[in-house]
Amino acid sequence: MAGLQVCSVLVSGANQGIGLGLVRHFLGMPNPPKWVFAACQDPKGQRAQELQNLASKHPNLVIIPLEVTDPASIKAAAARVGEHLGGSGLNLLINNAAIMKPISLDNETLEDMTQVYTTNTIGPLLLGQAFLPLLKKAAQGSLSSALSCSKAAIINMSSSGGSIEEVYLWNYGQAVSYRCSKAALNMLTKCQSLGYRQHGVLCVALHPGWVQTDMGGAGSQKPPLTVDASVGGMLKVLSSLSEKDTGTFLDWEGKVVPW
Q1: Following DSSP, what letter does each residue of 163-183 receive, concatenated?
Q2: Are 203 and 156 in contact (CB under 8 A)?
Q3: Can you give the pLDDT at residue 1?
C-alpha cells in the first residue's frame, strides 16, 4: 500500500460493512490521509456508533450526512466536504453505498427495481457529478500527469453479480434488481472513465469479493472473505491502478472481471 498516497478520501455507506472497513484501513495507514470523509444516512444514529467512536479518536475523520438517493443531500455533502478541504481538492471518491433485495425474477416489482437502481446506479452518477469540481481540483494540483488514485479517482463498488458473463452466485440468490443495478453501474463507470479522463480523473469498477457483511451474509452460506481481507486487497489494488486501468472492472485481487 506504499503507493497509495492520498490527502483526502470520501467513502459513502461508511457506517457498516465494507465502507466501515475502508475507513478503518485508511485511518490505520502509516501515512493516513489528511481528511477521511465517512458519509452515511444518519451520522448520529445507533448504526453509526462505531463511526462516532472512531471520530472521537481520529481528528482527521469527518462524518458527513448523505442520502445517495437525494440530490439535495448530495449537493450539501459536496459543499460540506469542500469547506473542510479549503482550497485543495478531493483525491478519492469511493461510491460504496448500496442496497440489495434478495428477490427472485418472478417477484421483482417496479418499486423494488426503482429503489435499488436509484441507490446503486443513479446515486454514484450524481455523486460523481457533485464531486467532480473537487476531483478536478485535486488532479490539477497533482505533480503527476498520469492517472492514479493518488491523483484523482472515482471507485465504484460493483459486484461480479452484475457481470453478464459470470452471473456470480446465481444459485445462491437471484437478486435481479441488484444484478441489473450493478451491470448498469459498470456501464456508468465506463462512461465516467471516458468523460472524466480529460479532467485527470481515473474511474474503475471494483468487485470486493463475497464478503462477510450484513448484505453478503444474508443467506444460509457463509461468505469466504472477511471485511479486512477484502479491504486490504482492494487498497493494494488501488495503489497499483494507472492510466491503463481506467474504465475497467477488477476484483479485490486486481484480476479482470468479465463484463
Answers
A1: -TTT-TTTTT---HHHHHHHH
A2: yes
A3: 42
